[in-house]
Design goal:
The complex is a heterodimer of chains A (119) and B (110). With 119 residues, chain A is an all-beta fold. In chain A, the strands form two sheets. In chain A, strands 2, 4, 5, 6, 9, 10 and 11 form a seven-stranded mixed sheet that branches. In chain A, strands 1-3-8-7 form a four-stranded antiparallel sheet, with no helix packed on it. The N and C termini of chain A lie far apart (37 Å). Chain A has strands spanning 4-7, 10-13, 19-25, 32-38, 44-51, 57-58, 67-73, 76-81, 90-97, 108-110, 114-118. Helix content of chain B is 0%, strand content 59%. The relative contact order of chain B is 0.34. The chains are: A mainly beta (119), B mainly beta (110). At the A-B interface, strand 5 and strand 10 of A face strand 4, strand 5, strand 9 and strand 10 of B.
């Protein structure tokens, strides 16, 4: 149990286009989903936290209008990179938590990630 | 199907103890194995291992990879309460994305 999928696994797009990445919890209901971006030296930066049916909470420095997050159901969250630019090229990982929100940071199950390349 | 298994899933020790966390994997076209520590927000990167038998160390933490037996261990010596966290193991196959293990929850009691 506790499988999280992401789609697509990799995407290449032109500068200025928008890209949507889906994160699904396949066999459990996720109270909270998280979106991360991987930076050089393997560090993962938390971009935002989303709870089903409410607005996402963005971390400082993350542009809300550029990285749109929708958590429409307990099994699906989407991240849309709007007007993508080459500097948005990165590896985006989602995770889903089924524990209580207060504990959800250490109850996460990670997806396989999506590699975005913006030309 | 690629998979990563970690053991134990949960561990409670007292300060000063030494712990060994295990990560075994089955992936095609292995490229690297990574260890992360997750306390609050984003997991913190600890080690990346690509070659067998070469120990990586950082303070009280060390890790080693065995590509023949398909596993890695993470050692923490003289544990402290601040080591309490979930330790994640992830494998990156060539041409594919991450495969994360379920994590080991370590609790270090005073």
């Amino acid at each position: 149990g506790a499988v999280v999928s992401q789609h697509p696994s990799r995407v290449i797009c032109k500068s200025g286009t928008s890209v949507k990445i889906e994160c699904r919890s396949l066999d459990f209901q996720a109270t909270t989903m998280f979106w991360y971006r991987q930076f050089p030296k393997q560090s993962l930066m938390l971009m935002a936290t989303s709870n089903e049916g409410s607005k996402a909470t963005y971390e400082q420095g993350v542009e809300k209008d550029k990285f749109l997050i929708n958590h429409a159901s307990l099994t699906l969250s989407t991240l849309t990179v709007t007007s993508a630019h080459p500097e948005d090229s990165s590896f985006y990982i989602c995770s889903a938590a089924k524990g209580e929100q207060s504990r959800s940071y250490n109850e996460q199950f990670f997806g396989p990630g999506t590699r975005l390349t913006v030309l | 199907e690629d998979k990563v298994v970690q053991s134990p899933l949960s561990l409670v020790v007292h300060e000063g103890d030494t712990v060994t966390l295990n990560c075994s994997y089955e992936v095609t076209n292995f490229r690297s194995l990574l260890w992360y520590k997750q306390e609050k927000k984003a997991p913190t990167f600890l080690f990346m291992l690509t070659s067998s038998g070469i120990e990586k160390k950082s303070g009280r933490l060390s890790s080693i990879l065995d590509k023949k037996e398909l596993f890695s261990i993470l050692n923490i010596t003289a544990t402290q309460t601040g080591d309490s966290a979930v330790y994640l193991c992830a494998v990156t196959p060539y041409g594919q994305n991450f495969v994360f293990g379920p994590g080991t929850r370590l609790s270090v009691l005073p």
